[in-house]
Amino acid sequence: MTFSVKAKSKVSPLSRLGRRSALAAALLAGTALAAPVAQAAPAAERAAPVPDLVCRLDAEVNFSPPLSVRVKEAKVTGHIGYLDCRSPSGAAPELTDIVFGVDGTGRFGVFPPTFSVEGNGVGTWNTGEVGSLYFKGDLKQGSPVPERTVTSGPLAGDGINGLQIPTPRFDKITPDGVAGFDVIGQVCFWPGEKGRCTAF
């Protein structure tokens, strides 16, 4: 009688080693793929924008006729002054001040009581260059300045933001309504993305 004995299949040490090496290689490959993402994260964080100019705001707006619950829209005249300017970005260190004569429309909203302005201004920089701007927004205590954009001259295309403190002029408050405001504050000129002006 013949007996046949089946030999048990054995996994050789070399085969085990090969499998482990393949697993290690796969893990390393996964780590390598993830590494660029982790390294790219700091590079993706953009530096905070720096303004071309930071200036002291000194403005006066006049409404004619005075705005009130009876008069909701009026002509705006006056000036917007940007004074004592400095250039954090270094783009325009020669520009130190300008006063824009403004012309536009003032509006009064009843609920809640709100004064707003919209128009254009033209002025001359200390360098003798002429510039112009567009403005639109509300006159609120401690609020952002109305939206402004430099439309011509030095820094054309720059957007302007900042903080304003508008105060009614007592010599221009009449029984017919409010006829004028003084506005002080700080503004920044930005060549692209706008940052926080109060940081400068």
Q: In a nutshell, what does this entry contain?
A:
This protein is α+β, with helices and mostly antiparallel strands and 200 residues long. The protein has one helix at residues 13-44, and strands at 53-67, 73-86, 98-109, 114-125, 130-138, 147-152, 159-168, 173-174, 177-190.
Q: What ranges have pLDDT less than 50 throughout 5 or more consecutive residues?
A: 1-44
Percent helix among the residues? 10-25%
Order of helices and strands: HEEEEEEEEE
Rounded average pLDDT: 82
The helix count comes to 1
Range of strand content: over 45%
For the largest beta-sheet, the strand count, sense and barrel status come to: 8 strands, antiparallel, barrel
Assign the structural class, choosing from mainly alpha, mainly beta, alpha/beta, alpha+beta, or little secondary structure: alpha+beta
Task: Kindly provide the radius of gyration, computed on alpha-carbon positions and rounded to a whole number of angstroms.
Answer: 33 Å
Enumerate the strands of the largest sheet in spatial order, edge to edge or round the barrel: 1-2-3-4-5-6-7-9
Shape: globular
How many strands? 9
How many angstroms does the end-to-end distance come to? 102 Å
